[in-house]
Write a structure and sequence with these properties.
The complex is a heterodimer. By secondary structure, chain A is mainly β. Helix content of chain A is 5%, strand content 59%. In chain A, a hairpin with a 2-residue loop joins strand 25 and strand 26. Helices cover 10% and strands 47% of the residues of chain B. In chain B, the strands form two sheets. In chain B, strands 2, 3, 8, 9, 12, 13, 14, 15, 16, 17, 18 and 20 form a twelve-stranded mixed sheet that branches. In chain B, strands 7-6-10-11-19 form a five-stranded antiparallel sheet, with no helix packed on it. Chain B has two helices and 20 strands. The chains are: A mainly beta, B mainly beta.
Chain lengths: 788, 278
């Protein structure tokens, strides 16, 4: 994409959109302000501000800020947000007004039925392909071991599935877990798994919101092919000290938040740790030693409100998973272990240039590291230490502007630039006895940037469009990649509360995750695009319908999509991450030689009927989809179904608040089995012996297994039911909640993986049998949490 | 590294299997259970005889006598043809293969050959391959690097020029030739695991390198540089990976160019070199 081309398209577009506001030169004024939660001061994201008489409105942004410019007059402005009591204000807009609103949470109000106010309606919103679950609702869904997990809740939505049982890895519309952009307060999180993906690294107590976009991506997002999972941490109660704590079977957590300076500055700190290591100690008795596993994570945030024009937020995350083995006897001490960790830190500055122009600048740091180590210590001078690590470290700068020139236009533009530092593999050997200290770390530095502009506009009250353009760039070792990414989303109102939506998005991904294990081991290796490994690219079109049933507080969406992916990465057959070989070998391990590229296709249809709030809430989702891959170097270049291709996926989630004290919940999930390759037969394989003289030429035989076409067999279907019951005891200052839940109520033995076992019979015959291993039969759990 | 991985893996598996159950699978469609003909043959103009191995495959999920040695069949009819002439091969008992001498049926570079195999019980299969036109060129022994501690152990670095303008596949065999008990023996030297067969991708017309490990004091080296066809390459690449015991990697599907059967019928054209090292 040459610079001239860029100028020819962008400059006219910019000019066009900036002139619009001046066309209709009637007397107009701006209503703007911040919307917070009453009682905590927590800024609310996505609040609806609507003017019934004008049939127009706007939405508060990620920082609780809203702005709308309309003709002078006397109006009723309605502020509404799911789970909160709506507010109506009468105003005389004869000059610019700054109006800050505090909404009261309805969860605190008892027995209040939300009347048919203008709640968030999916038929009004131009964005399609978005999944949004209120954090409070996630806390009511029964979970594995009672551990509420935001990612597991996302997997219950259509178009989003998990890989294997219990795993928190996310597959969105046929894309792998490497194709999701996971952002926590603007920082990218590279490995979102604790305990091999059984739990995600996100502690729901510290989060304010979670939203997953699976198609029709607005131009402000880029860098991954399949989804954007955006999570915002709570800011911290600005008015009083509060907290939450919980004790579960696997982990315990504590969250504390409160003001540093009342109404001006607040903090939030949330920590979680597992005690599996303590629980398993009696089972893990080893000779002269001990082994175990633990994980912990910590979220912290501090923010300062300088006033209307400036706000500062500092947030950080740190989490680690570690397996360890320690042995000590009279001769030596041995320590070995494997750990992986994520660290993120973000500093964000909100600045209001004027009541129409909002800006945010962020400085972000993110670091992921996987470390495998082994030490044998005989004395202070006689030891051998071996360490292998790999990881990725990012520093980014991001600047975003949001401009509200006219009630029919919201213009967003911005830039982001990230310096990635990859360490695909590093080996450190420290052994004074062998006179060696070797540190062999190959580091690769690259820069990934993006610049975008989008205009979300309305035309004649029936048509809403979000048209955007993103230009992304990547440079690694003098190799440049420039890619234009057009984005378009449109929504057309077909009737009251019914609209048709369509979208097109082109996405590019410059960094790749190599992970060939189906079980989700932390052997993740992030690598950059190079001369030989080109960026991955996807194009997706989606078409759908959205209907709101206002009286019933329900929304129904039906969507069909088609996604084509190019240059996707896979391991060559037989290669794997564990192919590290002898670290002292003179041959260099090159990950580029072990990977190959190919294409992918995914298409399907999704149906979702959802109720986010109410006495009886939940959703029913169904997905019908196909996902296929084609790699020249895999399966001899023939197309095959991806391992995670799942024809049918059904999720039913129901939450019923029987009374103030009791909440009953249940889920049922069903999924077609994963695609696998089963062996057909074995034969005596002869391989060629290169000696020309036949006298010495003895052939070599080995037993070779013939497999059918790749992924031509299916595992048995997966289905499971969970139920939970919560007892809430609300006291003066504290609310206690006890939850009893059962995972896999009818104890179905869902296959986790298959293996083949040979049986020998007394009549001289043998037979190979396919056997399955399942984990997680019926598992009851009891957890306790309190809020103060 | 290996011991480290095993220990970690053990902890991993232990914690996972803590709540696991196993059972025989009955609700999955298993692959068909039928024996197929397997043929294996590697032909070249440089060989004195053309050899073909014929056997039957044993289906995995069916009940079979467990001492059924996947024996080589001796009652099959094996016919090789170059389009104009067809010849039937003869079974050699001591070697378990069917053969024909190059005097009776010469293998010519550039020609296409077809193999037809049938058995008395009605099984039939066939395969086809084309012998690569040229021999590899300009082979060189670049260097011998011995280990700093031990002269008997080290690396041999070799290289040869790729045939430019076409997609090529290669294999290099290296042997340490030495007299032993009045006779001669050849010890095979091995390249880096996984690099036995390779291509000229991204390197067309350039020097291609191959490195071998050696473990003994070497005196005379014998090299056999093969320009192999795509079938040879794909088959060996997949068979060598087939033995990988890594439970976490995807199974490697074995290549076959045999119609109605398994195995491979492939060709190569080679260059032989003997180098005196001492």
């Amino acid at each position: 994409m040459s610079k001239n081309h860029f100028k020819k398209i962008i400059i006219p577009l910019l000019v066009f959109f900036l002139i619009i506001p001046f066309v209709n030169a009637q007397s107009k004024h701006t209503l703007s302000g911040y919307i917070k939660e009453k009682g905590s001061g927590e800024l609310l994201i996505g609040v609806n501000i609507y003017f019934p008489s004008l049939q127009t409105g706007t939405v508060s942004n990620n920082y609780g800020f809203y702005s709308i410019t309309i003709p002078s007059g006397i109006y009723n402005a309605v502020f509404s947000y799911i789970g909160y009591k709506p507010e109506s204000k009468k105003l005389d807009l004869n000059k610019d007004i700054e109006l800050n609103i505090a909404l009261e949470s309805s969860i605190e109000l008892e027995g209040v039925e939300i009347s048919a106010q203008k709640q968030e309606r999916i038929s009004e919103v131009v964005q399609m392909s978005v999944v949004d679950i209120p954090i409070e609702q996630i806390k009511n869904i029964p979970a594995l071991f009672g551990e509420k997990d935001v990612f597991k809740a996302l997997q219950l939505m259509p178009g989003i599935q998990n890989g294997t049982e219990g795993s928190s890895g996310i597959y969105v519309r046929g894309g792998g877990p490497d194709q999701n952009l996971i952002i926590l307060d603007d920082a990218t999180v590279y490995n979102a798994n604790h305990l091999f993906g059984f739990f995600s690294v996100f502690n729901g107590d510290a989060l304010k919101s979670i939203e997953l976009t699976k198609g029709g991506f607005p131009a402000r997002y880029g860098g991954r092919l399949s989804s954007v999972i955006e999570m915002n941490m709570k800011d911290g109660n600005k008015e009083k000290f509060t907290g939450e704590a919980g004790i579960g079977l696997i982990s315990s957590r504590l969250t504390l938040e409160g003001p540093i300076i009342k109404d001006k500055a607040s903090f939030l700190i949330s920590a979680r740790r597992t005690y599996i290591d303590v629980l398993l100690q009696p089972f893990m008795k080893l000779e002269n030693g001990k082994g175990g596993y633990y994980f912990y994570d910590l979220n912290a945030k501090v923010n300062y409100d300088f006033g209307r024009k400036n706000k500062l937020y500092l947030s950080g995350y740190f989490g680690r998973d570690k397996f360890y083995l320690k042995q000590k006897d009279d001769f030596e001490e041995m320590n070995a272990g494997l750990y992986w960790q994520n660290q993120t830190a973000t500093a964000r500055w909100n600045h209001l240039f004027n009541n129409k122009l909002f800006a945010n600048a962020s400085l972000i740091y993110s670091n992921y590291k996987l470390d495998i180590y082994s030490e044998e210590i005989e004395s202070a001078d006689d030891y051998f230490k071996l360490e292998y690590y790999s990881g990725i470290e990012d520093i980014s700068f991001k600047y975003d502007l949001q401009y509200h020139p006219h009630p029919d236009h919201i213009i967003r533009t911005g830039i982001i630039s990230t310096r990635h530092l990859f360490t695909p593999s590093a080996v450190v050997i420290d052994a004074p006895a062998l006179d060696e200290f070797e540190s062999n770390a190959k580091k690769i530095e690259s820069l990934e940037s993006g610049i975008y502009i989008e205009d979300e506009f309305k035309y004649k009250s029936k048509l809403k469009v979000n048209a955007g353009f993103r230009l992304s760039h990547f440079i690694n070792n003098k190799k440049h990649y420039f890619n234009p990414e057009p984005r378009l989303a449109a929504s057309y109102k077909l009737g009251k509360n019914l609209s048709m939506k369509a979208s097109y998005a082109m996405m590019n991904q410059y960094i790749h995750l190599l992970s060939n294990t189906g079980i989700g081991l932390p052997t993740d290796l992030w690598v950059p695009s190079t001369d030989n490994i080109k960026p991955q690219q996807s194009q997706q079109v989606a078409l759908g319908f959205a209907k709101d049933f206002i009286g019933k507080n329900l929304s129904l969406s039906l969507e069909g999509y088609y996604k084509k992916m190019d240059n996707i990465i896979g391991y060559k057959e037989g290669a794997s991450f564990l192919y590290i070989e002898d670290p002292t070998s003179s041959q260099e391990f090159s990950w580029e030689d072990n990977i190959t590229n190919g294409k992918g296709w995914s298409y399907g249809a999704e149906v979702l009927l959802q109720r986010k709030y109410g006495k009886f809430s939940g959703w029913i989702g169904y997905t019908l989809s196909w996902t296929q891959h084609q790699f020249d170097e895999i399966n001899f270049g023939k197309k095959y179904y991806a391992r995670y291709d799942r024809r049918h996926d059904i999720s039913v989630v129901a939450i019923y608040k029987i009374s103030k004290k009791f909440t009953l919940s249940g889920t049922w999930v069903y999924g077609t089995g994963s695609a696998i390759t089963l062996p057909n037969a074995t034969f005596k394989g002869v391989t060629h012996n290169g000696l020309v003289d036949d006298k010495f030429n003895n052939s070599f035989f080995q037993t070779v297994t013939d497999y059918g076409e790749k992924n031509s067999s299916r595992m048995a279907a997966y289905h499971r039911m969970d139920i939970g019951i919560q007892y809430h005891k609300k006291m003066k200052k504290v609310t206690h909640t006890f939850e009893f839940s059962v995972y896999n109520l009818y104890s179905r033995q869902n296959p986790f993986f298959y293996y083949i076992e040979d049986s020998y019979y007394s009549n001289g015959t043998a037979k190979s049998e396919l056997k399955q291993v399942s984990i997680f039969p019926i598992l009851p759990s009891l957890t306790y949490s309190l809020k103060f | 590294m290996k011991t480290l991985n095993i220990k970690i893996l053990a902890i991993v598996i232990l914690s996972v299997t803590l709540t696991s159950c196993e059972k025989v699978v009955t609700n999955v469609d298993l692959p068909d259970a039928e024996q197929q003909l397997v043929i294996q043959s590697f032909i070249s103009p440089q060989d004195d005889i053309t050899k073909v191995w014929v056997s039957l495959s044993t289906p995995v999920f069916s009940e079979t006598p467990y001492d059924i040695e996947e024996d080589f069949l001796d009652n099959a009819t094996v016919v090789i043809s170059d389009g104009a002439t067809s010849k039937t091969l003869v079974f050699k008992n001591s070697k378990n293969y069917y053969y024909i001498s190059s005097l009776d049926f010469p293998i010519v570079a550039g020609k296409t050959y077809t193999l037809n195999v049938s058995t008395p019980d009605g099984k039939k299969c066939d395969a086809m391959c084309t012998v690569p036109l040229s021999n590899p060129l300009s082979f060189e022994l670049v260097s011998i690097d011995t280990n700093t501690y031990d002269d008997d152990y080290g690396f041999l670095k070799t290289r040869f020029k790729d045939i430019s303008g076409e997609k090529n596949y290669y294999r290099v065999f290296a042997y340490d030739k030495r007299p032993h008990a009045g006779d001669t023996i050849y010890n095979e030297l091995y390249p880096e695991y996984g690099n036995e067969v390779f291509t000229d991708i991204n390197n067309d017309g350039n020097w291609l390198n191959q490195t071998f490990h050696f473990y003994n004091n070497i005196k005379i080296l014998v090299f056999n540089i093969l320009n192999v066809d795509k079938h040879y390459y794909s088959y060996h690449k997949s068979v060598i990976g087939n033995e990988d015991g890594n439970p976490f990697s995807e199974p490697v599907i074995v290549y076959s160019n045999v119609n109605n059967g398994l195995g491979v019928f492939c060709a190569y054209n080679s260059l032989s070199e003997e180098i005196d090292v001492k």
